[in-house]
Amino acid sequence: MLAATAAVAAFPVVQGRAQAAVTEGAGYRWRNVVQGGTGFVTGVLFHPSVRGLAYARTDIGGAYRWDDRTDRWIPLTDHIGWDDWNLLGVEAMAVDPAHPDRLYLALGTYAQSWAGNGAVLRSEDRGATWKRTDLTVKLGANEDGRGCGERLLVDPRDSDTLWLGTRHDGLLRSTDRGASWQAVSFPAAPSATGQGVTLLVAAGRTVYAGWGDSDGTSANLYRTADGTTWEAVPGQPTGAAAKVPVRAAYDRHTRELYVTYADAPGPNGQSDGSVHKLRTTNGTWTEVTPVKPGGASDDGGTDSFGYGGVAVDARRPGTVVVSTNNRWALVDTLYRTTDGGRTWTSLKDEAVLDVSETPYLKWGGDQPKFGWWIQAVGLDPFDSGHVVYGTGATLYGTRDLKHWAPEIRGLEEASVRQLISPPAGQAHLISGSGDIGVMYHERLTASPSRGMASNPVFGTATGLALAAARPSYVVRAGWGDNGNGAYSNDGGRTWAPFKAQPTMAKSAPGPIATNADGSVLLWSFGAADPGFRSADNGGTWSEVTSFPKGAVPVADPVDPARFYAFDTSTGTLFASTDSGTTFTARATGLDSGDSEFQLAVTPGRSGHLWLSLKWNGLYRSTDGGTSFTKVSSCRASYTLGFGKAADGVSHPALYLVGSTESITAVYRSDDEAKTWTRINDDRHQWGWIGATVTGDPRIHGRVYIATNGRGVQYGEPVR
After folding, report:
1. Coiled-coil segments, which residues (predicted)?
2. Catalytic residue ranges
3. Is the pLDDT of residue 1 over 90?
């Protein structure tokens, strides 16, 4: 029988103490750099008993509570630390209608063998504090089916009993409000590769469970009336259009259960779907699909899609909203009915979208789209005109069923890959992220007015660099719509594509660097590809055969003739003194095989290098990489950055994500890594934060941290 371990102490939890060279408890204020969503909102849940109380979950960025007084989302899982990074994906959430302060989260981002097991968090104060139970099974909040659900439910007969549907381990039950879990007998057999339980919903005192591994002919919806015996629901629909039950909602006035279906769990891969309702009083099924997939699209193709979200109006019997999903040709929509599904209206057709607060939602064009990956739909139980729906990038809301705008303040989910804090100019920050490319942040407290960097627009940024002695010149690389590299002569405000690019840039764009004066570019690609050099602003490119394949090019901040690169496969530092034309080996015998490493240069100092290694700490060179000395104060280093020096100090401040002893945290050093001060705390950890960190060269103490799912965090000392 599957069981969970005992619950651990309530969060936040202190995870040990650092060595004597570290000062703890430095006062820092932490906030999000505002981008505005930028990630997949996989679930939204209004509390049925409390006006203005709602929760949202994301695939990699944790959970949030809506604060109706400030119109903002409050992050609830930022306390999750480095070792628990897999718990920032929220598989499911549940509230207790009878106890408004209770909240439950099922956490676990990946169900793969290399990921940790899932966990359940439970709170008695709406997520302000938590108790945790570690599970012996894996969950998959960032895998196929992540928009299904909810998979977590408080039993309608007993507030102490909870149900949790898993992907590969069947159905679990807790009888002590989530403190411990046991497997229960369930009619469908779990598999190592399937979807398992896709949804749990209460209809009166009966609990229904969706099953995602049906072949389209076998049962995929089950129920229990007594909490012990499960049975297949009689008469349920079959066929490809009803293969996977995605979501369900119960109309307590008409006693009808509405279920959305698709031929795949989504969010990708759906091409067929349907909507059905079950009258629970007599077992009658009725198909109420608004529009059947398979018709002609505007481009002459097939209008293929599935159905995703569903929500019922608690105030108006027979009023329901459902969403299409994966409808790329005609764009996804919401359908609304006021007569139990006999007729439907597309809310997209009359929608007026206002994205002035988050301009990136225009995706480099003139107009925003209604959305895609719509599997999360919520209808306010106290306001029939208040509907929200999640997309792959935001959460839209309306109060009148016509005018829509993002209801996303406070919710930031970008997976950030690159950060630059320029030493001059309007913007203190330029960021590069997955899915939303590069952003120029005129202000840290508002979404960039220019939206995503365009000309070309990137989906995911792979490289970002500026010329240290000419900071108005910036270059970027990534997966683009019209080329994979671009340059800016105004500090990143506007861009132009490179006139040419190496062939492999289209299929494997990688990191890019520019030398100190911006006269030379070096572009790296896959591990099997050579580096390429341009001395005419991307007009032509030549192969650099001596550049270590797959390495990250780094420019000297003072001398335009110098570049560096670390070959992790051999543990060798390479350097160029002819502006990247040739590279030769310098230091050898360094740690090899470390996939998480960073080579950094000290601003304003030629030849001063820092090698950050996940497993072996931090190394320093002051002779251009000819030799390195281990920094004794650092046990493990994931990423290193620099900021303005402290008053009376000549060396830039160092910022480290790493460990001085046992704590993986964020540190600052004002004395060249002799001593460190931990500047984050146990309430601000954000899971995996190893991509990049940088200080602000104009403001001592300010630091920017790239997170994998919580956007850009920035901290400043409390003065």
Report:
1. none
2. 59, 435
3. no
